[in-house]
Amino acid sequence: MPSYVITGVSRGIGYEFLRQYSSDPSNTVIGIVRNKPATDKKVSEDADLKDRTNIHILEADCTDYNALKAAAEATAKITGGTLDYLIGNAGLVSKFDAFDPIGELGKQPELLTKTLRELFEINVIGQVHLINLFLPLLLKGQTKKVVIVSTGLADFELTNKYDLELGSLYSASKAAVNMIVAKFSAQYKKDGVLFLALSPGMVDVGHYKELTPEQLQAMGSMLTKFADYAPHFKGPLTPEQSVTACRKVIAEASIEKGNGGDFISHLGTKRWL
Ligand SMILES: NC(=O)c1ccc[n+]([C@@H]2O[C@H](COP(=O)([O-])OP(=O)(O)OC[C@H]3O[C@@H](n4cnc5c(N)ncnc54)[C@H](OP(=O)(O)O)[C@@H]3O)[C@@H](O)[C@H]2O)c1
Question: How remote is the CA of residue 85 from the centroid of ligand 1, in Å?
Fold first, then answer.
């Protein structure tokens, strides 16, 4: 009975992870959300999910250490004290830095500071506590895999080669968590725990529905660079496509294959699109 803990299952990629992993009744899938009643309602109204008894929703803001600790304790009660997979998916995709380069952001120093702090709270510090709190369960599990959802935008080579100037603060927070993943791997590889920073590709979760013409133009220039990088790129994946690909990568990655501490994409490589 493989067990999974996935953070941020209220919507987007996390909800799709919940949907796909729980489709196998032998999996126990524990989703962590900020608003349990809202996600319970969503699941109960979802024709595919509503009768699945292997779904457990727990409430924790991933920036709240004590709430995460309580979620780890509740998980232990559900699984009998073990865990096979931890997927740190919850994250902040900031809007403030999405459309302007870092030099422009400097004209709003207070907002810049606030956004960077918020990004590090959830995308970095929250993941460190999440991993540390669930490690005792993972060490008693069979599979011992920790996946932190990152982004190809945190890749230095890609950024430098294509002068990707947008998403600077967000990308920095994900680059930081990539190193956190590598450091956890450095400590726990000998115990058989695989740590992976995994980019899900560019995924349409509805973030960019209501853009101003200026924002659309900024996005357009980024998409032109993406097309330059990956001529086959035709636009974002659906959450279903992305998670299907990510699950394959998670299943196939191993310490033996050299993936300990790796930063790779839904394609299982360092191709991000
Ligand atoms: N979409 C893409 O193209 C893309 C590309 C690369 C990487 N990613 C990464 O994929 C992950 C999922 O993002 P998404 O695209 O699915 O975006 P999303 O639709 O905005 O979902 C973000 C999820 O994170 C949760 N969350 C945010 N802050 C939280 C906190 N403090 N505590 C607990 N949960 C929190 C949200 O919960 P609430 O509902 O409570 O807000 C939501 O479930 C993120 O780590 C993101 O950086 C996405």
Answer: 18
